[in-house]
Amino acid sequence: MSVDNPVGPEDYSNVTGTCQETFPEPVAHGAGVMNNFADLERRDRGKPAGERGTLYARALDYWRENVGSPENEPHVAVDDFEADWLPEGDYALELTSSRWKAGTGHGDDYRAFYEQHIKLREWGVDDNGEPTLRKPAIALHVEIMPQYKDMVYKSGDPLECPHGEGTRVIGWTTWAEDPFQIENRMYDALREIYGDDALDLDSRVFDSRRMAKAEAHIRFSLEKKAAAVETIDQSKQLIDWGGESEIDARQRRVKEGWLEAIVESDRWNLLGFDPQRYSTELKIYQIEDWHERPRSDPFAHPKLEASFSGVDRGKLPHIHDWDEVMDHLRTVVATHAQWAGIRRSDLVGDDYFDGPVAAPFSFERPTGRRQMLRRRYEDLATEIYREALKESTTSVYDILRVISEETGASYDCLEERTGLARSTIRYHVARLSEAGVVKRLGNPVLVVFVSQAVLERAREIVREVRPDDMAEDMNERADERRERREEQQEHSGEDSDAPDEEAARDASNGGEIGFMYLMELSASLADIAQEYDRQRLDDRDIRVRADPLPDRLR
Length: 554
Fold this sequence. Notes:
Layout: E1 18-24, E2 27-37, H1 55-66, E3 75-81, E4 91-104, E5 111-125, E6 131-134, E7 140-147, E8 152-153, E9 166-174, H2 179-194, E10 210-219, H3 225-242, E11 248-253, E12 259-265, E13 280-285, E14 303-308, H4 322-339, E15 360-366, H5 369-388, H6 395-406, E16 409-410, H7 411-418, H8 422-434, E17 438-441, E18 446-449, H9 452-465, H10 471-492, H11 501-507, H12 525-533
Antiparallel strand pairs: 1-15, 2-9, 2-10, 3-4, 4-5, 4-8, 5-6, 5-7, 7-9, 10-14, 11-12, 12-13, 13-14, 16-18, 17-18
Helix pairs in contact: 5-9, 6-7, 6-9
């Protein structure tokens, strides 16, 4: 039996082609547009922030006269807001403020500026029959920020103003079909509060009109969610396998064992999509109470959504690139829907998405996915063989066997059935995860193979490499490991979770097991917290010295 890698990722780029397809058009959802106004006159540069004649200065002056303190927020600036793009209803505009990233002064004399926020709200009635404001179906949030060259960050570094001095505004909204609708909604809100003369479009910098956000989605039947989650996970594996990608994937368990899947990458071209200079996120999500709703309610069903999620370097897409960006997002959604077996009849209509009767969308769908997955699974099978056949240890074989028999196993289950120390299990699981063989879900962690196909292949390999190995054989190995560890603990006088000798030998060939002081790490405490939130670290990955801690934290 050979364990040589038959197909390397270098062959990957030759697999894909494209074919012309049609699918119901994914609808545009959330979007954001940025504008800069070079509206600071030279003669006003030395004046106080609220007297500089800019849109930001007018917004700041309005806040001082009408709000005066954060304690008075949110402030209803307009209690009867009307616009031709609003659905039927009664609307208002609320005003709030927040500390901004830049200000003036240095050290103890530093004073941050405050950005202004305009938010669209809809009038309703609460349980007591009293009028109340709530978020409407169509969202609008306008941010107003200063752009002055005499401003600095708290670090002391100067604020850069690439589009000149004045005001930056960003409008975030939903259900807009083009960027000009977004700008017009933003301008309507600004003029309504600050006056018709508040905006000088002649001072608007053309190059600053950039897309801050764009989304496209479909809503589809709940019965197809498991297949869609599996499809996204396969794409994550294939992009990661193709290399050269900075990829972020997160999954978590929700009601009835369904999964929510999110994958973000700037290398979707590895799957055959046209190269883009920005990152794209693809996700499946539902509202929080979806499981309490009847299937006849559209909100009981999930969305498959692709979104433009920023750039690591360079400029954001210009609003004149809107059609190109939206075509890419719609193509990613439609392609993954077809890969997941979602058909027109599986789509679910709602107030904004036409579902099965949506207009057709023509796109170039990447081909060759089946061949890519086959090659990927061949690579994974090779890795499973390599791990299961290790002469230095039976630990990995037993871990693989338990995961395959249990169709996913917790650390407690692995510890009980293999007799291995928890640190040894975590070490091997981390290596298998890094190799793309398994993944870790939830907290407490559940270790599973990356797909159903890999699970089935792993079961075959486990049986093949040790055909005579019986359950009692693994039980004996587990008992021997526990006895050996107890003897080590008696000799050392410590009740530790030190790695087994097998794992220590394995680690000597490729990495160490153990804990380090925070001061020795390049990561910060915030970085560690982020990894914990993303479930890449679990409760046994982090130790804190308890004796100096306050009782409430112990």
